[in-house]
Amino acid sequence: MTTLALFCKVVDNFGDIGICYRLARQLVAEHQITVTLWVDDLASFKRLCPEIVVDCDWQQVDGIYVIHWRDQNEKYTPNDVADIVIEFFGCEIPPSYIEAMKTRKPVWINLEGLSAEDWVEGCHGLPSPQNGGLTKYFFYPGFTEKTGGLLMETGLLQQRDQFQHNPFSTTDFLEQLGVTSVEMSGIRVSLFCYYDAPVLELFHAWQVNGAVVTCLVPEGVAREQIEAFLERPAVAGTSMTRGKLTVRVIPFLPQADYDKLLWSCDFNFVRGEDSFVRAQWAGRPFVWHIYAQDKDLHLVKLKAFLERTSVRSQHLTDLTLAWNRANDKPVDWGTCWQRVERENSKIALMSPAWLESLVSHGDLATNLLKVALSITHQNRDTQPN
Length: 385
Ligand code: TRH
Fold this sequence. Notes:
Elements: E1 3-8, H1 15-31, E2 34-39, H2 42-48, E3 58-61, E4 64-68, E5 84-88, H3 95-104, E6 107-111, H4 119-123, E7 127-129, E8 135-139, H5 156-165, H6 167-176, H7 181-184, E9 187-191, H8 199-208, E10 213-218, H9 223-230, E11 239-242, E12 245-250, H10 255-264, E13 267-271, H11 274-282, E14 286-289, H12 297-308, H13 314-323, H14 333-359, H15 364-382
Parallel strand pairs: 1-2, 1-5, 2-4, 5-6, 6-8, 9-10, 9-13, 10-12, 13-14
Antiparallel strand pairs: 3-4, 7-8, 11-12
Helix pairs in contact: 6-10, 8-14, 13-14
The structure holds 2'-deoxy-thymidine-beta-L-rhamnose.
């Protein structure tokens, strides 16, 4: 039985643990790997996975061994080291664990963040020699065959199709979230963005322009702006209709249910990395709020994606750039939204070809294990007899 240790530091928000939890689950369920997930913030983890017990050093969830990673100074022996060691986003593995790795010589991989930029292909798989005869390899997720691909569970698109082709699945799911049948009959939009997105500007446009919109916002998202619209605390169950817009706060969902939300909506606003990928698998038009970086580096990343995707709509691009405040020009939100709204079904029709190309590069978990296996063989071949 192959063992794998996945080290996750929650820098902020939910993406770090969201990605690691998803990867760990797939490695256990589909590849029979024994996975230990080391994570420093169980409270964030619990938001995505309610079974997590926050005050617990060691627990098992979905077949994953979860260790509350509190201490960099703990002592480890070579027996503690897994066959494959993954550090997420260059987080620092405890020094004593690395010391033990020098004896055990596992496959060591740094799993990086997602980008559609060209340079990713050149860096994916690069080795980086370390002290003590260890080598760390860089693994980059991505959108092309020369990258590590994207996280996607086997059967995900079939599950999505089953859900989307059965109208009761959507109504049952939304009903459980407190959405009324009147609200369901409007254009359904899910909203997941950072606090500084131009939410109130778009809400104003939805109130007065175009078709009736129901905007579903998980609790905690863009809280200040949602409360300004609602004029009361944005707790799950609260809703407000103004003009053509209803805003409803729904509970922050367990990770598996978040997919169902994306599948249930006509249009999704997503952010960061994991929800951005899930919106693509959902096959519905979406706008991505990218995680801001110094010197506007994120805008380069954003434009690289907009150029890479084959779902091409100038109106959707305009809305995405406006949502990320990428241009200095004033935005006419009403016109911007209505143009996308009119094209929504045409945009959705472009997604199967894009998804097909993504699927053809293989899923990230499988690609990661292939890389690990080839490094193991390479190490075996180069070791003296
Ligand atoms: O939360 P994010 O902004 O996360 C990240 C981190 O900030 C990270 O440091 C940064 O590197 C990265 O963005 C770019 O967005 P993301 O990646 O979409 O992660 C959100 C996770 O939360 C994802 O797994 C989906 C999940 N989620 C739920 O499970 N339920 C919900 O109701 C919602 C709204 C999200």
